[in-house]
Amino acid sequence: MDFQIDDQQYARYQTLLRERCGLAYPTNKRADLAQGLRLTSQESGIADLDQLYAELASGSSIWDTLITHLTIGETYF
Description:
The chain is mostly helical. The chain has helices at about 5-20, 30-45, 50-55, 60-70. Helix 1 runs parallel beside helix 3 and helix 2 (about 30-45) runs antiparallel to helix 4. The mean pLDDT is about 90.
């Protein structure tokens, strides 16, 4: 499945992530952001990116799902 986000959606998600948790997604990481959104969309059952954004912006528990897909869960001691 080819999952693309348009420029407006990309800018909105970029701002939301930077303001909410300090994650930065510059242009060269756009595909990584799209992948995280695709996985979150599939898991949450929300196929529309604008609706997904509204849920995330409202503080929905879907936020935890997105962060899980955008961050690396490894630690080394």
